[in-house]
Amino acid sequence: MRTRLRTAVATALAALTVVALTACAAIPTGGGVRTGQSIKDESISGFDYRPDSPVAGADQTAVLRGFVAAGTGAQDDYGIAREFLAKDFADEWNPRRGVTVLQSSGAVERVADRELTYTLTASATVDADGEYTQAVRPTTSTLTFQFVREDGEWRIAYAPDGIILTPVSFERMFQQHALYFFDPTHRYLVPDERWFLARSSTSTRIASALLAGPSGWLEGAVVSAFPEGTQLSLNTVTIEDGTAQVDLTSDALRASDDDKARMREQLLRSLASVASVSSVDITIEGATFARPEQGGAQAKTNPDVDPRPLVERDDQVGYASTNGKVAALGDGASATIASLDPSAFSVSASGTVAAVGNDSGVVVVRGRDALRIDATEGLIAPSIDDRGFVWVARGSDTGLVTAYGLGGDPHQVRTTLPSGELVSFQVSRDSTRALALLRTADGPALYVMAITREADGTPTRLGPPVRVQAASGTAVGAAWVNDSDVVSVGRVDADTEVVRSTVGGQSTPLPTPDGTATAVTGGSGASILLRASDGRVLQSTGGRWDTTGVSADVLGTQR
Fold this sequence. Notes:
globular
C-alpha cells in the first residue's frame, strides 16, 4: 500500500543529510553500478543561521537552551546541535522527524538530578512528511531531556526527535510547496501543501514526497500516475539549465502511456515552485524514458470563475456589472431561479445547472425546469459539484450530508464532524474536497474533508476532517477561494472578522470590512466577495476591501 511506501520514504527523507553525500541505490540488473552525485545542501533563502556551540562550564539549563537554539542551524546535518548531545546519542537524534513552532519561549524545570523538562506552547507543527498543522488554539507540550557528564561537561543523553523554532526562524528556514495529484477523472490537479527546508535538496524532497503519495486525509479523493512502489533510483534530483533530472526505479515502467505522460505532468507541476526548474527529464535507472504524447487535454489547476459577481437582485439573476446590468444565465435559468425567491444558490461551471435554496427546501434548476429534491426544514445553502451532484445538509445534523443526483436520487454520506450547528457546506471547484463551518460549544470550527466516490462519480464517503483556522465570533459563512485557500467570516459584536487559511498552511486575518457581512463566496483570481447587510458587494484580492459597485439581495456561488 502507498501508506507503507510513505513511511519508507519519510525514513529516507529523514536520512537525507546536509553534508556531501554519495550513494548508489536500486542497482540495475544490467550494467555497472551507478554513483549518485555529491550534494551540497546549501541554503537557498539567502540567509543561514549560525548558532553558537556549547560553552565550557555551562550548566544543564544553558546546555538545553543552547541545544534548542541550535535547531536553527541546518548546516552539516545540524552539526552544531549535535555538539550538545552525548557521543553515543548524537547519531540517534533525528532532527528531521518534525518541527514545533513556538508561540512563546519555553519554560525549563528540573524534575531529577540529571533530567529537565521543557514546556512549550506550540502555534504549529510540521511532521516528517512536511505536513503542516496549525494549532487552532494554543497547545502546550512538555518535553523531557536527560543529561550525562562527558569530559567534565554536561551533554544531553536523550532528547525528543525534531527541532523547535520561533515563528521568525521557521519563516526563514522553511518554504511551502504544493505536491500535485490528480482527481479520479484526471481533469484536475489537486494541491497537497507541504513544507520543506529551504535548501538546495528541496527538489529531491519534493520528488520523494510526491512518489510516496498524498497526505493520509486526501487518500481516496486523489490518485497518482506513478505505479505503486516507484521511488527515486538515485538519492538526488539534479537541476541542469532549468531541467530537473529525475531517475526512477523500474517500477515506473508498469505505467500506461497515458500515465507516463501524467507522471511527467505531476512532477513538473510539483517542482514548479522550485525557482530554478522549468522542465523535467525522466530516466529509469539511468536509461532513457520514452516520452509519450499527452492524450487529450492537460489537467486543470486552480479552476477559475467569472470575474463578475453572481447575484440575485430585484428578481434578476446573473452576473452583475458595475453599470448596473445583470447578464442572465442561459436557457431561461435566471427567470426560473428568480421565481423561486432564493435565499441561496450555486451555479455549475457550465452555467446550465443551479442548486437553489429557499424557504421550501432545495430545488435543482436546469433551464426552465425546476425539480424540488429536498423539502426538509432547517436546510443550509446547497452546494453543487462538477460531477452532477447537489449537496444538501441540515444545520442541526453535522453527521449526515445527502448528495442528490440531478434527477433527485439521494445518496447519504456520513461525516465524522463533531457535534454542533452546521452553518455552511461547500464542495471545492475540483470536486475532491468539502469545506464545513460549524458553530460549536467552543466557538466556530472550520474543517476540510476529502470526498471519496464510486467510478461513476457517486459520493460514498467524507474522509477524516482536517481543522483549519476559522474567524472568531458568531460564524457567518465559509467558502473556497481557490484550490488551496478557504475563507471564513464571523461577527464579533458589530464588526466582521474575516480569516483566509491555506489548507495545509498558515492563516491570515484580513482587514475589517466596512459594514456587517451576511454572506461570503470565492471570486475570480483568488479574490473574496462579501455581501454586506445593506446589499453592497465588497471584494478583496489580498489586503484591503474595495467596493465593486454591485449590490445584491442574494450573493450566489460559482463553480
